[in-house]
Give the backbone structure.
Amino acid sequence: MIKSELAKKLYSHEAHFGEVQRQITLSWGQAARISYRNVTMRLGRAMITGAGVVLGIAFLCSVWTAKVAQEGLERYEAQSARAITGDDAALAPGAEDVETERKARAARQAWLVVMSLLVSAVGITNSMLMSVTERFREIGTMKCLGALDEFIVRLFLIESAVLGIMGSLVGALLGSGIMLLVYVGKERGVAAMMDWGQMFSYILIAMGIGTILSLLAAVPPSFRAARLPPAAALSTEV
Amino acid sequence: MARIECPKCKHVIDTPGIVTVCPECGADLRGVMDEMAHRRERLRDVGRDDSVTTHEFIVRTKDLHKIYIMGEVEVPALRGVEINIRRGEYLSIMGPSGSGKSTLFNMVGGLDKPTKGTCFIEEVDMAQLDAFELAWLRCRKIGYIFQTFNLIPVMTALENVTLPMIFAGMSSDEMMDRGAMLLDLVGLGDRLHHKPYELSGGQQQRVAVARALANNPAIILADEPTGNLDLQTGKEIIDLLKELNEQSGVTVISATHDLKMIDVSDRIVHIRDGQIERVEKRADLDLDIGTLGSGAKPELGE
């Protein structure tokens, strides 16, 4: 099968090698291609990893959307009341009650936001940790082929950034969408009275948080994986 | 090609840039080395062109020890292994499992660090290489073949073969040409775009052989390359390695307990309990058929 001019064939690129910089490289473009490959080829696995992000961000967005929609609802009800009685003072008797209730609700919401952030952080860290750990052998192989530690970290960073952005986008749409359906379904007029600008900025903030969290969660395990001696990485059984 | 001379003892060092102290007198060579802007170019050329190098031995180990720490127990895997491997040699390391042959493989391949002792590749002490130089060595000088193939599962055969070329900084077009050429060479010219799971074990191992050849290594290290293959497929891989060894002059070092390897090996190193038990030469076997295992004398450290 191997022809006798094997040696000639094998070393025909010798001249070329002479011109190449004596470097070990992995361009961001190549890294992005490999990471993209990893995400699309293991779509099922990537979706499970991404689900951690999706759920956390959906929770966060639903809390924030509920807040914005509730305010819209109140404005709408106030407007309706005015329309019926034709009197601005109609709300006045209950003003103090409304104020204390609003404060209580704000505290409850802050608590929910903190909780949902914690949920996202734990979920994302866990899934990133798993997805790095189950690929130890692959990391060992890449190091045998000449990958520097930073290449490994780079690949996982790109991957987690992609998963983070996609996951938070889906999560934000899901969380906000469901909450909006609930409120608008209850009272159609809410949509007109809502502060859409604020809701949009909440969605952007939530997406930013999701992306940053998944990046932060991927860094420690990928650093740990990259620094393993290849022999140890190769012999890891998961 | 330039060499450097130790400023103190005039010992000639053939591979500057990797050794930072003179192996003879221990003098610091960094000053001399800085003048050599093309140090890595030099390292590349060594081993490919015999007019450049004079080292007889491509791999040399000296009193190699490796101790694994399992909980509180120290488990010695290698206990003072000395082995000299010639350029272009086909060497098999044999021994029962747990004898330390895979550990030796890892030390020689720069995949793990010895607890004590030194391992030289091209007379370069591997312990003195930094992370970059080690990666460079793995990328350009050594091709690895594993029992479990270790192809990247999400990549096609061609992508697996070209991965080391990406690290080596080759241009995309040339990478594809060379990758296809190598796969053709191992008989997989029609399987370029198959994923590893679409290939049989033997075919996967062929991809691994092609990948090991990606950057024209001087050494191919194979750890039980036939361990997961049936008899016939294993034989084909062995023949492939032997042909490569004979025709391109690449040094093949293979850890194995596959007796089929004996036929093609120039030398067989038997390892037991982390020490070299005996070394058999192919020549001895040919002359002295029937005395396999008893006729050859140990030749530790050559």
User: Anything to note?
Assistant: Residues 85 and 258 of chain B are 20 Å apart (CA to CA).
